[in-house]
Amino acid sequence: MKELNPNIDTPQNPEIPHQNCAQDFEIEHKQLKEEEQEHEEEELRRLLLPNVEELPDIPPSAVDANFTTFFAPDFMKPGHDQYVHRHANGLCVIGLAPTHVAFKDKGGITSVDFNVGKSDRSGIKVTGKRKKNAQLFESNTALCKVCTSDSSYIVRCCVKGSLLEVNDRLIKQPELLNTMAEREGYIAIMMPKPADWLKAKASLLSLDEYKKLRTEL
Q1: What is the pLDDT of residues 62-80, one digit of tens each?
Q2: Residue 130 burial class via C-beta count within 10 angstroms: exposed 0-12, middle 13-18, buried 19 and up
Q3: Cα(158)–Cα(139) distance, rounded to whole angstroms?
Q4: Which residues does 87 contact at the CB level (< 8 Å), separation at least 6?
Q5: In the chain, what is the straight-line distance between the N-terminal and C-terminal CA atoms, in Å?
Q6: 3-state class (DSSP) for residue 170
């Protein structure tokens, strides 16, 4: 029987071949990639297919989604309630709030006249990125006059800024004010300077504050 050479060490933990290490690494990498892909797919499903129980009963309107609404109740006169839809880019859409006194007259609003003050607001045409020809108006400047069968009411800017446009559709379609005053029935679009907006905002009400004030809503 051949004797073992005592000077030769017998390895207790033989090294794993390099090929096996590479295979194990590839398997582990593949598993991680599959898990990451599954996670991404699950996240995508969550975004595209939200939980039905979390959805609102009524989807938000374009106004609710893109604007923050403020209110100017009793602006200059009792019952002259107006809204200001403020966009993130600074634009302010001006219109009549649901509780404006004009809507309480029999038959609602029957006509709109932009020929107030010293000029016809519907004749103002603003052009270019610099808003050439835009006129700077004060918050109490008249935008138009809305008429009912019983009376007439002056609608004002509510904020100091440049008048970019008026909704001249109301001249031929005044009924838009009675049915869609917060959307297609808006009065005008203003662009106040940041400092002027902050000053105006301090005097306006939020939606919740407005609802508390006008409990009939």
Answers
A1: 666 688 999 999 999 999 9
A2: exposed
A3: 4
A4: 66, 67, 93
A5: 107
A6: helix
In this structure, what are the phi and psi dihedrals at residue 100, rounded to the nearest 5 degrees? -60, 140
pTM of the predicted model, to two decimals?
A: 0.69
CB atoms within 10 A of CB 141: 19
User: Quick one: tokens of 14?
Assistant: 């033989």
Half-sphere exposure of 180 (CA within 13 A, CB side): 10
Q: Tokens 């504050």 label which residue?
A: 209
Burial class (CB in 10 A: 0-12, 13-18, 19+), 135: middle
SS3 of residue 162 by DSSP: strand
Q: Report which of 103, 77, 84, 65 is spatially closest to residue 182, judged by C-alpha positions.
A: 84
Residue with tokens 């200001």, as numbered in its chain: 84
Query: Looking at domain 62-213, which of 2.40.50.100, 3.50.50.60, 3.90.180.10, 3.40.50.720 is its CATH number?
Result: 2.40.50.100
d(C-alpha 94, C-alpha 155), whole Å: 9
